[in-house]
């Protein structure tokens, strides 16, 4: 499962520098049909995890869609972020990163990436990583979580829509090679249902 947000545009980069991208806990249980060959441990990132984490990044994405080492270190070391690790048989099976920022007194979270090693996909790892980052976002006080996803990534789109995310439009030329992204948001706390998400309004999509 490859649910990367990708290298952001200038507007997204500005948002990131304020403290912010393509994983926290959902309130409903995991799919009862999913069976694991052995238990998967979910825990928060430690600095010594970086080599294994970046090896998954290199396996999942080729340039120009791959995060550089420096950029990846910046986001995992951001104090306003949470990186969740999925570990199986003592090896990293996947990871997810969420960041958050305050704007006008409200906190908004942004999913940077969800990545699962090839041999561990279709076992519910990506779903659980998404739940974990959502839980971290809630704990940070975020009322909205959002992300970009490649318009051609049907598996990622299906996961987010099944998890309660709603499309807010497209961001054209968001990824390398002029690939478009779909912007998805999900409310993590009660708010005015008639109001547009300030995070989306920030990027001029409404």
Write out key terms for the chains shown.
206 residues, alpha+beta, Aminopeptidase, seven-stranded mixed sheet, 6 helices, globular
Care to describe what's here?
With 206 residues, this protein is of the alpha+beta class. It has a single domain, classed as Gcn5-related N-acetyltransferase (GNAT) (Aminopeptidase, 3-Layer(aba) Sandwich). The chain contains six helices and seven strands; from the N terminus they run H-E-H-H-E-E-E-H-E-H-E-E-H. The protein has a seven-stranded mixed beta sheet with strand order 1-2-3-4-5-7-6, sandwiched between helices. A hairpin with a 2-residue loop joins strand 3 and strand 4. The protein is globular and about 40 Å long. The C terminus is likely disordered.
Report strand %: 25-35%
Tally of structural domains: 1
What structural class do the secondary elements suggest?
alpha+beta
The biggest sheet amounts to: 7 strands, mixed
Strand order of the largest sheet: 1-2-3-4-5-7-6
Count the strands?
7
Tally of alpha and pi helices: 6
Kindly provide the name of the CATH class. Alpha Beta
Low-confidence parts, pLDDT < 50 over ≥5 residues? 6-36, 190-206
Element-by-element helix/strand order? HEHHEEEHEHEEH
Q: Give the end-to-end Cα distance, rounded to a whole number of Å.
A: 30 Å
In CATH, the topology is named Aminopeptidase
User: Which range best describes the helical content: under 10%, 10-25%, 25-40%, 40-55%, 55-70% or over 70%?
Assistant: 25-40%
Mean pLDDT: 80
CATH architecture level-2 label: 3-Layer(aba) Sandwich
CATH homologous group name: Gcn5-related N-acetyltransferase (GNAT)
Shape: globular
Radius of gyration: 16 Å
């Amino acid at each position: 499962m490859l649910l990367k947000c990708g290298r952001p545009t200038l507007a997204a980069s500005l948002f990131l520098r304020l403290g912010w991208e393509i994983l926290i806990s959902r309130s409903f249980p995991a799919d009862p049909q999913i069976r694991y060959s052995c238990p998967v441990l979910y825990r928060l990132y430690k600095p010594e995890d970086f080599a294994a984490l970046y090896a998954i990044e290199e396996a999942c994405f080729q340039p120009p869609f791959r995060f550089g080492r420096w950029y990846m270190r910046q986001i995992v070391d951001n104090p306003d972020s949470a990186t969740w690790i999925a570990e199986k048989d003592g090896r990293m099976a996947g990871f997810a990163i969420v960041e958050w920022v305050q704007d006008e007194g409200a906190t908004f979270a942004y999913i940077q990436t969800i990545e699962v090693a090839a041999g561990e996909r279709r076992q519910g790892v990506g779903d659980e990583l998404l739940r974990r980052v959502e839980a971290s976002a809630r704990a940070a006080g975020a009322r909205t979580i959002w992300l970009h996803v490649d318009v051609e990534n049907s598996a990622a789109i299906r996961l987010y829509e099944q998890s309660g995310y709603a499309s807010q439009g497209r961001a054209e030329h968001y990824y390398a090679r002029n690939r478009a992204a779909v912007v998805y948001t999900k409310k993590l706390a009660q708010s005015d249902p008639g109001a547009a998400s300030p995070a989306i309004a920030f990027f001029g999509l409404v």
